[in-house]
Amino acid sequence: MPENNTKAHQRIDSLRAQLHEHNHRYYILDQPEIPDAEYDRLLQELLALETDYPEYFDPNSPSQRVGSPVLDQFATVTHELPMLSLGNVFTEEEALAFDQRLKDRLDDEQEITYVCEPKLDGIAVSILYEKGRFARAATRGDGSQGEDISANVRTIPAVPLSLHNGWPERLEVRGEIFMPLAGFESYNKQALARGEKPFINPRNAAAGSLRQLDSKVTAQRPLDMYCYAIGVISGGPVLTSQFAALQYLASLGFKLNSEVERATGIHGCLAYYQRLQRRRADLGYEIDGVVYKVDDFERQRLLGSISRSPRWASAHKFPAQEEMTQLLAVEFQVGRTGAITPVARLEPVFVGGVTVSNATLHNMDEIERLDVRTGDTVIVRRAGDVIPQVVAVVESRRPAAAETIKPPGKCPVCGSPVSRDEGAAVYRCSGGLVCSAQRKESLKHFASRKAMDIDGLGDKLVEQLVERELVTTPADLYGLTVEQLASLDRMAEKSASNLSEAIQASKQTSLPRFLYALGIREVGEATALSLANEFADLDALLGASVERLEEINDIGPVVAHFVHEFFANPDNLQVIQSLQDAGVCWPTRQAELRSTQAAQPLAGQSVVLTGSLDTMTRDQAAQKLQNLGAKVVASVSGKTSFVVAGEKAGSKLVKAEALGITVLDEAGLLALLDREDS
Ligand code: IVH
């Protein structure tokens, strides 16, 4: 045997063994160890080798049987029609080639009408209805046999138990069960609080929830379902297209995905792909791509299937959100309030559309929970714009030299002792403003847009100012000269004088901004505003007791304690005094509120516009009302202040009258605008 062939044979055997093991972990144990993208790569490699070396064919190869063997505990269900899977394309070129293949086969160059759907990242199910009633639900399994999970599926609110009128004698509906993101996050939070293991991702959460032998457990899980196809049907209407089939399912009471659209030609599909990719993070559930399906059933029939997938459909995958890489080191970063956060330094990896080389590890508890060690192979996840996270360790790839990660014995930046708050996971540097990291971070916060809003004072400049010891506390910013600023790296004379002006301009601020800028622990914008509204001036706040602070709405004992502690610290009082001495000032809250109220007489009012107006468009009317501080909203509710009803006003007017809400006609609106404008 030539040496090449021996090598190929060995590789094929090794890939088969690995894939068998991953299948087992994924389908049977619900404990996948590697990301889907890595699994796909192994499978693709095997498929390619098997094509090149047909002599090594094996009917038991993982390439021949995608999916899971059936678990003993659930009854086995044989699908009357096999549950197929989808071919994939990853690029625009591959999508164009897919479309061209179909045109060639149909021997028709006309644009194909497709139905575009999100590719939901959950678990495929088949649900059988007999005489309009839920009869049985099954997993896809290996495509021909699945598991009977009726008891579990019955608990999912989105799954109808009896159908609306118009049901056929027998109907098998296919769709995807998934866990919406909000449910996934709240479930994981609770699991952590109970000391249980959280799920790695929503897909695992859905799989784990459906695999429960006790359906009472499933019933507690926030599962949802969308339908995407009909399997067996007898005695129903004649359906001629995917789109019509989906409408029919909706009419029977099934939940259809609102993103489903018909598209003309592959270019219509590609536009859909782009659109959905942009909206991916806002959908509220996970998708890993989109699916293009030939709409016309007759054409689907003509095109047929190859092995396990139909020719008439394809998934167009998004870049993977989870990838595998190596953890090179863990470094500790010190934040504004001294909190020490472990950050993973990674072998750079392309995930979620960008190259990632750092990921957060949150805190020491998280490191312990993951049992992550330096040198480990880890799974990194980057979804949307969320900070990349290490979500799991691939233990089987742990090198012998992997090292456990120890909590910092002292502050990694200033060497001050660290402490751990009672019952909390976070380690903290005790150095305060002695610590240059805390100084830098608190200055960045002080200068930020929602705080003192110092235009042009970015992170890099703050770091230089601290490193060159030009600035220690925020008050020092106001003593900086143009020459000092001009001496900084990459700082021209002109930008130095602009920055100096911006620093001076920031002195005129407001009390809420000033309080927020101080960087008191747990005091965000909203709390700063509550504090400013509660106390006549800063002195009154400085003198407030913990009990007095706790009386304020939205302020609990923890925040009250932090606020009190902050103002009890003489160093902080000194900084506040220096800021005021430097000229930082604000109008009294009363004056500030009076001036906004005068300019915005309709502030706090919610207005609905309906019908058409003679003297202006609805948009123009809305603009005028907004200029006076009103919020213009689309629908009438108990919270609506008044409704402006023009000609041909419809249901909104009816509803306003029913709720007893003030209604103005056009003359009334003009009179109001006139009065308030003057
Ligand atoms: S149609 C013949 N539509 O993707 C095609 N599948 O690899 C059968 N999936 O097992 C599937 N969203 O779990 C279809 N809108 C969608 C889908 C979808 C997700 C999953 C499904 C299936 C797998 C196919």
Task: Give me the secondary-structure topology.
Elements: H1 3-28, H2 36-52, E1 76-78, E2 87-89, H3 92-106, E3 113-120, E4 123-130, E5 133-139, E6 145-147, H4 150-153, E7 170-178, H5 181-193, H6 202-210, H7 215-219, E8 224-234, H8 242-252, E9 261-264, H9 265-279, E10 287-294, H10 297-303, E11 305-306, E12 309-310, E13 313-317, E14 322-334, E15 339-351, E16 354-360, H11 364-370, E17 373-374, E18 377-381, E19 389-393, E20 403-404, E21 418-420, E22 427-429, H12 436-447, H13 459-467, H14 474-477, H15 482-486, H16 493-505, H17 511-517, H18 525-534, H19 538-542, H20 546-550, H21 557-568, H22 570-581, H23 589-599, E23 606-610, H24 618-627, E24 631-633, E25 642-645, H25 651-659, E26 662-664, H26 666-677
Helix pairs in contact: 1-2, 3-9, 12-13, 17-18
